[in-house]
Design goal:
InterPro entries: QcrA_N, Rieske_2Fe-2S, Rieske_2Fe-2S_sf, Rieske_Fe-S_prot, Rieske_Fe-S_prot_C. Its main location: membrane. Belongs to the Rieske iron-sulfur protein family. Its cofactor is [2Fe-2S] cluster. By secondary structure, the chain is an alpha+beta fold. The protein folds into two domains: about 130 residues; about 160 residues, Rieske [2Fe-2S] iron-sulphur domain (Rieske Iron-sulfur Protein), CATH 2.102.10.10. Helix content is about 35%, strand content about 15%. The strands form five sheets. Strands 5-6-7-8-13 form a five-stranded antiparallel β-sheet. It has a four-stranded antiparallel β-sheet with strand order 9-10-11-12, with no helix packed on it. Strand 9 and strand 10 form a beta hairpin. Helix 3 packs antiparallel against helix 4 and helix 3 runs parallel beside helix 6. The longest helix has about 30 residues. It is elongated.
């Protein structure tokens, strides 16, 4: 039976492209390597390698970038010190932004960018650009390889011309020395220097207790037994730009207890006919206390459930709060209004290192 053209028998006699048949073993072997290593192209010198004037020009460019970084860092610090926090400016096409935030971001970005750009330009124009191929090897290097690495490092340091290009070296050191000052200055933004601000509030002797809901001075008859009233210092308006800062420390809660239910003698002496005033700020993390249990005389912080006994000096009876609520000493003036007899005897709110 004759074979037809294109049959399987004919195909077995033919070789696939790029292969040859072994006459003795019938094996098919590839001809040549289709992925041969082309090698590295011949090295071409740069203008800076053959022209010292061009090299000097590149040196000045790198030094300019490092100097610009130093100036930007100085601008960052100057912006932080001089620009007011609440100033808003219009920047096209961004729109209205904080002048301080924009200045800080711009100057710090320029400082970091110029250091990076200067280092890249230095490496591309003045450092050695010879490519050195190396075969892959196990992670653990032999002593010969370690020695070669150290020799290559020393050679690279020499070829960087750091000792020769003093202008680059000095400006680079200046930029690297100044840019960390940006971070040091930012540490100032962890918070205002407290000085004695944590120990004092807006309450002063003779200052009236103002009902925070009605904005009217409080009289003893306005405070009923079992009620919880919130008060603020006299002269503090909700429209005042400093209102939140002041009320965050001066917020007051007032309750009226039966004198015989008050367990702490000082608390009784600091009140008026069973009316006592305590700080509204929880001594755990500063949340405003707003839940009052009339039968037990307990107030509860809604954030972490710290519970205070207002009939026993505001002491902590449950929760993570560290100390009792500060009490404000109050009395009644000659016009019949409740007034403060001074500031809190101890700092309000959460503990701090210097509290003592």
């Amino acid at each position: 039976m004759s074979s037809q053209p294109g049959s399987n028998e004919d195909m077995s006699e033919e070789n696939l492209p790029g292969e040859r048949s072994d006459a003795h073993h019938g094996a098919v072997q590839p001809v040549g390597d289709p992925f041969a290593d082309p090698g590295l192209p011949p090295h071409e010198p740069r203008r800076q390698d053959i022209d010292e004037r061009t090299a000097r020009r590149s040196e000045r460019v790198v030094a300019f970038l490092f100097t610009l970084s130093m100036l930007a860092t100085v601008g960052f610090i100057a912006s932080y010190v001089t620009l007011p926090i609440h100033k808003i400016v219009y920047i096209f096409p961004i729109g209205h932004v904080s002048a301080l935030n924009f200045a800080l971001g711009l100057t710090l970005g320029v400082a970091l960018f110029c250091i990076g750009a200067g280092a890249v330009h230095w490496a591309r124009t003045l450092m050695s650009d010879h490519e050195v191929p190396q075969e892959r090897h196990p992670i653990e290097a032999s002593p010969e390889v370690r020695q070669q690495v150290m020799a290559d490092f020393a050679q690279g340091a020499k070829e960087s011309q750091l000792g020769r290009r003093k202008l680059i070296r000095n400006t680079m050191f200046g930029a690297l020395a100044l840019v960390p000052l940006s971070g040091v200055v930012l540490l100032r933004d962890l918070g205002p220097l407290p000085e004695t601000k944590l120990r004092h509030t807006a309450w002063k002797k003779g200052m009236l207790l103002i009902n925070q809901n009605t904005n009217q001075p409080l009289r003893p008859e306005d405070v009923a037994i079992g009620s919880l009233t919130f008060a603020k210092p006299e002269g503090l308006s909700d429209d005042d730009p400093e209102f939140q800062d002041v009320i965050a420390k001066a917020a007051l809660m007032i309750v009226r207890l039966k004198p015989e239910d008050i367990k702490d003698k000082r608390e009784l002496d600091w009140g008026h006919e069973g009316i006592v005033a305590f700080s509204k700020i929880c001594t755990h993390v500063g949340c405003p206390i707003s839940l009052y249990e009339q039968q037990t005389h307990h107030v509860l912080c809604p954030c972490h459930q710290s519970t205070f006994d207002l009939s026993d000096g505001g002491r902590v009876i449950f929760g993570p709060a560290g100390h009792a609520l500060p009490q404000l000493r109050i009395s009644v003036n000659d016009k019949g209004y409740l007034e403060a007899l001074g500031d809190f005897a101890e700092p309000v709110g959460p503990s701090f290192w210097e509290r003592g």
